[in-house]
Design brief:
By secondary structure, the chain is of the alpha/beta class. The chain has helices spanning 42-55, 67-74, 77-80, 84-109, 121-132, 137-166, 169-172, 180-193, 200-225, 237-258, 266-270, 272-275, 277-305, 320-354, 377-394, 397-426, 431-453, 461-491, 495-504, 526-535, 585-589, 624-636, 640-643, and strands at residues 364-365, 374-375, 508-517, 537-550, 561-565, 570-578, 604-614, 651-659. It folds into two domains: 38-477, Amino acid/polyamine transporter I; 494-659, no CATH class.
């Protein structure tokens, strides 16, 4: 991504990304891609493990609040009575879903597919593109589909999590039922309004609070397994298979609700760069998985012993005197789960901007120590509006559950498809072996997607609509930016021709250095051409600056800046950033001093080309509505100088109109 305009332009001259091999060896303490590696010491590893429990497992850790209840209700238990075979079968489905999807697919396999230590859908896309050795439209479409579905998940998670926790108040006293929605709205508003102040201080408490939550879940479940020890039979997967075979269509409906138990599994992979493989794996194996399994088994045993507990089997695991503290703890846990998703929305949006999928947006850093602690006002507002809309529309966690699974299953299908490419091309496996590895997981994801699709008209269409809107925005932005780039390139002159003309007929020179931001270093930037046309002067030193973003999370400082002299009038500077990095231009330009350029920000002027986009009256490449959408996105993109951290008092903007 490189631009000095209101819309990002593609840099065709970008250097090819360095080949990257994915480590297929067992995790070692000296793995450089693992922040939890032992070389950081046991204290650092323990801190990362605790932190990962709070951030990575916050979402999946709140699923017991509603997953088993919704699955049993979907199977008809609330209408036809609790059948032992149904309870054992659904419990078996939940336990094996956690084992196959989370433990094997994500913890064992996908955590190895890191892109320089980073995970997530867009990181997997970058890894797949590099493995193929060429841009792939299929991979691109898969990635934006997965990213778009995540935004649907980011809106549903806070709504269903907070609602399910606050609904526990009804068990304390039915008189509080009318206040469930207002209290939920207040909590959500407070959560989103607090984002601008940063979460670094609160985040330190996330891990310990979530550990207490998991311990409380494990103890609650353990206390009731004795109600019916026969629940241990659910460990046999035949009970899961028998339930699906015996129940037909109703079994598929219940399967869609069973998937609620694994929502949040994508966070395992997305947060890889923050915590590393080892802490995430140990946290899952030692604390999270055992706690979830014990709690689900305890809920199942309670329902078998006391069928009326189906009303809310999670909270009824605890004695009456513990209800209020558990509701409070559950509310804290759901806030933490929501915070993790909100932070993920910020990170994903920033990655999408760096990869030219979205227009530039304001990014505020809320922590001096952690660059990942960011706040994006526009994203925060849009997600908040979406969450409040969902709460108002569905009114209860049970109704919201019908809309939840389809977004997550869609994301998991995308992840499986991209993982096949990575295993085949990046890891060097034979195609048949890669297919043999990934196909079972893809088949399971497709089955879960089909089961959730049965709830399409009951609310499942909502996350799909959100994802469709995000995809339309991404596609419109990338298509519009390409059209602008192609059109302006036809109207621009090669810098080599301009340099020869200026050498033959030198203009008047003025002191100082002029830096012209350009997407294509082979073409004279519009700002330079307009400056020569109107002012008829040239600075003593003139630099064509191209900012590039590679498909790697970070770039070594040795490769950050490259200086190249063209002639006595012009030089070219290439600044390279990873898509997870902040493009600070002045700081990066200071590195050019080692290459002979005595850069002084106070004697340098930055010239930016501000293009005003207009919809053409005829010969449009996009429909009129898409033209207008692109123009609106371009007009509302954040300021170029702010995005690149260029001091505003050193910036000169020169405008031009472009019709598309």
């Amino acid at each position: 991504m490189s631009s000095g305009e209101t819309e990002p332009n593609r840099s065709d001259s970008a250097e090819p990304a360095q080949a990257m091999s994915v480590d297929r060896s067992p995790q070692t303490p000296t793995d450089p891609h693992d922040p939890g590696a032992a070389h950081g010491g046991h204290g650092r590893f323990l801190a990362l493990l605790v932190g990962s429990i709070g951030v990575v497992y916050g979402d999946i850790g709140t699923s017991p609040l509603y997953a088993l209840r919704e699955a049993l209700t979907a199977a008809g238990a609330s209408h036809h009575g609790v059948e032992r075979a149904d309870v054992i079968g659904i419990l078996s489905l939940i336990l094996w879903a956690l084992t196959i999807i989370v433990s094997v697919k994500y913890v064992v396999i996908l955590l190895r597919a890191d892109n320089d230590g980073e995970g997530g859908t867009l990181s997997l896309m970058a890894l797949a593109q590099r493995a193929l050795g060429r841009p792939s439209r299929v991979v691109f479409l898969l990635a934006i589909t997965g990213a778009a579905l995540f935004f649907g998940d980011a809106m549903i998670t806070p709504a269903i999590s907070v609602l399910s926790a606050v609904e526990g108040l009804k068990l304390i006293t039915p008189a509080l039922e009318p206040y469930v929605i207002p209290i939920t709205v207040v909590i959500i508003l407070a959560l989103f309004l607090a984002q601008s102040h940063g979460t670094a201080a609160v985040a330190r408490l996330f891990g310990p609070i979530t550990i207490v939550w998991f311990i409380a879940m494990a103890l609650g479940g353990l206390a009731h397994i004795a109600d019916d020890p026969g629940v241990f039979a659910a460990i046999n997967p035949l009970h899961a298979a028998r339930f699906l075979i015996d129940n037909g269509h109703l079994g598929l409906v219940a399967l869609g609700a069973v998937f609620l138990a694994v929502t949040g599994a994508e966070a395992l992979y997305a947060d890889l760069g923050h915590f590393g493989r080892s802490p995430i794996r140990w946290a899952w194996a030692a604390i999270v998985f055992p706690s979830l399994a014990l709690n689900y088994m305890g809920q199942a045993a309670l329902v078998l012993a006391k069928p009326t507990a189906l009303e809310n089997p999670f909270f009824l695991l605890y004695p009456e005197w513990l209800l209020a503290p558990m509701v409070a703890l559950a509310t804290l846990a759901t806030i933490i789960a929501s915070q993790a998703v909100i932070t993920g929305a910020y990170s994903l949006t920033r990655q999408a901007i760096q990869l030219r999928l979205l227009p530039r947006m304001e990014v505020r850093h809320t922590s001096a120590e952690h660059s990942g602690q960011i706040y994006m006002p526009q994203v925060n507002t849009l997600v908040l509006i979406g969450v409040l809309f969902l709460v108002a529309l569905f009114q209860s966690s049970s109704k919201l559950a019908t809309a939840y699974g389809i977004a997550v299953t869609g994301t998991m299908i995308v992840t499986a498809c991209l993982a096949f490419i990575v295993v085949w091309r990046a890891w060097g496996w034979p195609r048949w072996a890669a297919a043999l590895l990934i196909a079972p997981f893809l088949a399971i994801d497709l089955i879960f997607f089909g089961a959730n699709a049965l709830k399409l008209l009951e609310g499942g269409f909502v996350p799909l609509m959100i994802a469709a809107l995000v995809m339309i925005v991404m596609w419109t932005w990338t298509r519009g930016a390409q059209l602008v780039f192609d059109k302006t390139r036809r109207e621009e002159a090669p810098i080599a021709d301009l340099a020869r003309q200026l050498a033959a007929r030198p203009p008047q020179r003025v002191k100082g250095t002029a830096v012209f931001l350009t997407a294509d270093p082979e073409i004279a930037p519009p700002a330079l051409m307009h400056s020569l046309k109107h002012y008829k002067v040239l600075h003593e030193k003139n630099v064509l600056l191209t900012v590039k973003v590679e498909n790697t999370p970070r770039v070594n400082e040795a490769r950050r800046a490259r200086l190249e002299a063209l002639d006595d009038n012009f030089s070219r500077v290439f600044l390279t950033f990873g898509y997870m990095e902040e493009p600070n231009v002045p700081k990066a330009l200071a590195l050019c001093r080692k290459q002979g350029w005595k850069f002084d920000i106070m004697s340098t002027s930055f010239f930016l080309s501000r293009r005003v986009i207009r919809a053409a009256r005829d010969g449009r490449a996009m429909p009129l509505w898409q033209d207008k959408l692109f123009i609106s996105l371009a007009q509302n993109a954040s300021d170029t100088s702010a995005y690149f951290h260029i001091p505003t008092n050193r910036v000169v903007e020169i405008g031009a109109q472009v019709s598309i």
